Amino acid sequence: MSAPKKVVLAYSGGLDTSIILKWLQTEYGCEVVTFTADLGQGEELEPARKKAELLGISPENIYIEDIREEFTRDFVFPMFRANALYEGLYLLGTSIARPLISKRLVEIAEETGADAVAHGATGKGNDQVRFELSAYALNPEIKVIAPWREWDLTSRTRLLEFAEANQIPIAKDKRGEAPFSVDANLLHTSSEGKVLENPADEAPDYVLQRITRPEDAPDQPEFVEITFEKGDAVAIDGEAMSPATILTKLNELGGKHGIGILDLVENRFVGMKSRGVYETPGGTVLLEAHRGIEQITLDSGAGHLKDSIMPRYAELIYNGFWFSPEREMLQALIDKSQEHVSGTVRLKLYKGSARTVARWSDHSLYSEAHVTFEEDAGAYDQKDAQGFIQLNALRLKLLAARDRRLK
User: Fold this and answer.
1) Which regions form coiled coils (predicted)?
2) Rounded to an integer, what is the distance from CA 332 to the centroid of its chain?
3) Does any domain span residue 264?
4) I want to staple 358 with a disulfide (CB 3.0 to 4.6 A). Which of 122, 194, 253, 346 is the partner?
């Protein structure tokens, strides 16, 4: 790969990406543009601007953007229409943020005339795959630089030595190794590494960033009503809100009640298993509510088909194929299923659980006249069930008769 002339770097302002910024300048002698995304990680982002300026980046080459609404509306909500869970448990909080970051990196590269993008993902993880597959899907000509796969700064000591040699400020708490690494956005917080690496050891309580331990949660339950239109949450307790505002509010409620903690050993796309502790308070509440409204508005055939493709859809997102034609095809099917998924769900939040207790909708398929144990006024003729059973039993009878004959 020829040396890049101008690189757009996914920049957090932290030590690692500051080292990457300086390394790009010294290794390639190229101009660097920084992109810092506010995805709801809960950190002040203006220090990233000051840090970039300190490292010689001109103000017009520093991009800091609040993309929480786009993240929730165009990535999180479409994923939640599918009730997507990777390996049956993981709500894909890190996975779903990467395609949006890549999209903006590629767009900024086009705006600024850059010929490359760069990220700080390591060569062991999934994020390198997600960033790069997304970037190539959006611009097949873009160069992607992954310093962790190229440089010789392979230890914490070498990183700190490089930082000191290049006058990169090092916070006191960065001198020693952090007990675990954290990635956060509006949907979740992910904690991995160090004290969490041995899956035989229980994760210490101090790992939790945004969720109260269930045993410390309030002793009184709290009820919340979530209203949906075509599969997307649009209001909480009757108050209309934007997508990001809804997720923020549900994070607050879920976190308060100890909801959404997951300790998972997952299968990374690159081939190894890894252990992480995920906190997804609002997402866990939202998933339960969405399932609740689908129970009365989604036809059984459509619902069962949708559930059968969900693992494949979740795997595509986990593996970095958000911008693939197969994900888009599945999305079209999922979105078609949501045309009548509108109504309201009431949930009970209590000490780690979010449980649907009521649901109603003008689009409901639920017919009390058909299921009642009381007089149904001819809505359902129970004698019809006999023929239905006999037809479905026919092949079973033939199989059983053959097996008895051959014994």
Assistant:
1) none
2) 19
3) yes
4) 346
- pTM given for the model: 0.94
Catalytic (active-site) positions: 16, 98, 127, 181
Q: What is the per-residue pLDDT for 175? A: 61
Q: Minimal CA–CA distance to 119: which of 271, 12, 28?
A: 12
Provide the pLDDT for residue 295: 98
Which pLDDT does position 2 carry in this prediction?
80
At 168, is the secondary structure helix, strand, or coil? coil
Q: Are 13 and 135 members of one domain?
A: yes
pLDDT less than 50: residues of the chain: none
Q: Can you give the pLDDT at residue 247?
A: 98
Kindly report the number of other CB atoms within 10 A of residue 82's CB atom: 23
- The residue range of the domain holding 269 is 182-298+340-360
- Same domain for 208 and 122: no
Alpha-carbon gap, residue 197 to 184, rounded angstroms = 19
For residue 288, the domain's CATH number is: 3.90.1260.10
CB 296 within 8 A of CB 365: yes
State the pLDDT at residue 371: 84
Selection from 270, 254, 230 nearest residue 348 by Cα? 254
**Domain tally, the chain:** 2
Among the candidates 116, 147, 177, a domain finishes at 177
Residue 56 lies in a domain: yes
For residue 255, the surrounding DSSP H or E stretch is: helix 243-256
| CB environment 27-39: b (16+ within 10 A), e (fewer) | ebebbbbbbbbbb
> What are the residues whose beta carbons fall under 8 Å from the beta carbon of 303, sequence distance 6 or more?
294, 337
Backbone angles phi, psi at 348, to 5 degrees: -110, 120
Sheet strands side by side (includes 261-267): 181-184, 189-192, 273-279, 261-267
Q: What is the DSSP string of 32-81?
A: EEEEEEESS-----HHHHHHHHHTT--GGGEEEEE-HHHHIIIIIHHHHH
Q: Is residue 327 domain-resident?
A: no
Residue with tokens 């990457």: 20
In the sheet with 6-10, reading across from the earlier edge strand, the strands are 62-66, 31-38, 6-10, 116-118, 143-145
DSSP for 98-160?
A: HHHHHHHHHHHHHHHT-SEEE----TTSSHHHHHHHHHHHH-TT-EEE-GGGT-S--SHHHHH
Residues 202 and 162 occupy one common structural domain? no
Q: Is residue 159 included in any domain, yes or no? A: yes
Quick one: tokens of 279?
Answer: 């906190």
Q: Do both 171 and 197 map to the same domain? A: no
